[in-house]
Amino acid sequence: MNPGPKKPVRVRLAPSPTGSLHIGTARTALFNWLFARQNNGKFILRLEDTDKERSEKKFEKEILEGLKWLGLDWDEGPILNQEGYLGEFSPYRQSERIEVYKKYLQKLLDEKKAYYCYCTKDELEAERQDMIVEGLSPKYNGHCRHPDNPKAGREPQVIRFVTSETKIEFTDLVRGKVVFDGSLLGDQVIAKNLITPLYNFAVVIDDEEMRVSHVIRGEDHLSNTPKQILMQKALDFETPVYAHLPLILAADRSKLSKRYAETSLLDYREKGYLPGALLNFIALLGWHPKGDEEVMNPSQMTEKFDVKKVQKSGAVFNPEKLTWLNSQHIKNLSSQELFKLLSPELKEKNIIAEKEFVLKLIEVEKSRLKTLKDFIPQTDFFFELPNYEAKLLRWKDETLPEIETSLLKSLRAVEKINAKEFTAKSIKEALESIVDSTSRGQIYWPLRVALSGKKASPDPAEIGSIIGKEETEKRIKIALEKVTNTRENYYDQSS
Ligand code: GLU
Ligand code: ZN
Fold first, then answer.
1. Paired residues of 243 in beta bridges
2. Is residue 175 predicted with pLDDT exceeding 50?
3. pLDDT value, residue 352
4. CB count, 10 Å around CB of 247?
5. Which of 307, 173, 286, 183 is nearest to 240 (CA)?
6. pTM greater than the 0.85 cutoff
7. CA–CA separation, 128 vs 139, rounded Å?
8. How far is the CA of 124 from the centre of ligand 2 (A)?
9. Could you give the CA distance from residue 31 to residue 37 in angstroms, rounded to a whole number?
10. pLDDT tier, 318 (very low <50, low <70, confident <90, very high otherwise)
11. Which helix (H) or strand (E) holds 207?
């Protein structure tokens, strides 16, 4: 048989704007986006905002902002014309599609595939309790399904779907063959009334109307899938291909809580993470490329991603890994790119410096940055020597006179260099001429502290080349002074 033309790939992200954009939604977005990009398909954004009480505009904005920050652009929707949005696609909103759902609800009612249920909450609860007592798993008993329903004429409570008691089977791209027993479901509530559809119903209509070919979503939706498939059958819709992504877990395999992850993805931006690093990290939550190379940009991910290779078991969220990836992505940026990213904060903190100077700082600090937020605290000493304690100058168990001798040696060495040739290379050479294999730490440690005032900092030759000869000598003299001033005190402490 001729299989006919392949269905075009159309996938969607369908977040409910009832909370912040969290890591799980971002991963669903990324996997859908990668799948669309790989298959020349379309990535659709649909806001599932039918729950009026819980949906909020601020969450909607946050979701859009987060997706844009990550660079996960969507491909469809009316083009917005408002200021700042020119040329961008507006997402679909379920709240704007009520008429569409109404049409299908009416159709199901007319075909007797759905019916009004008149049972009150109290009645349903009483039935539920009875079933539990009888040792049955509770479900709606189908009371109002019958045409001679004695409750008819009362106030209708909800609309229920005639849920057949068949076996429901589908092949999930991640989980393989999945089978559900329809007889456990009971007639599902699909709407409160004609203009208030519920989630499972609206999704089925939208996936059909938007010609969604693949539904890639979190495992928390797995139990919704059989219900949705039954509705698709009743409406003569084609069932899309499903892929359910594994849950994201904390290190101890418990539910991911605030202790491990930021509630909102945008908080990572505030903390100095790069969108590229987050995307890379999220990609590895449940999937791993072939080979050892884990650092990837979006185009490399698009090349390598394979939804069929996504794991079934929970994906552990490891914050240290995120930070490591962030440092790797920072390293891969050019100094100019980093300068652009760092500028707003420098401005905000009133740090005024020549671009050339900041670029030099970036060069020496780049490999030590874990997040963008490390830059200012890690470079403040270039602008102004912090006040530090003399004991920081001490290498191993050196005595004060030894520290003094070491600093004096360094001072003499740098004094010999011509101010115009005060480069990292010339400083290094000068220092190398006064150390031997046993005295490296002895010379380098106190000098590095003298120039930075910090326990951890770049190489003293690098620092010297940036602050210049005059400032270098001044800082060594300050260190020498500290040693002299604290001499007695120091001996007291170390005796
Ligand atoms: N609106 C659902 C949610 O926010 C997603 C629905 C779906 O992907 O089918 O979890
Ligand atoms: Zn009923």
1. 216
2. yes
3. 83
4. 17
5. 173
6. yes
7. 7
8. 8
9. 10
10. very high
11. helix 199-209
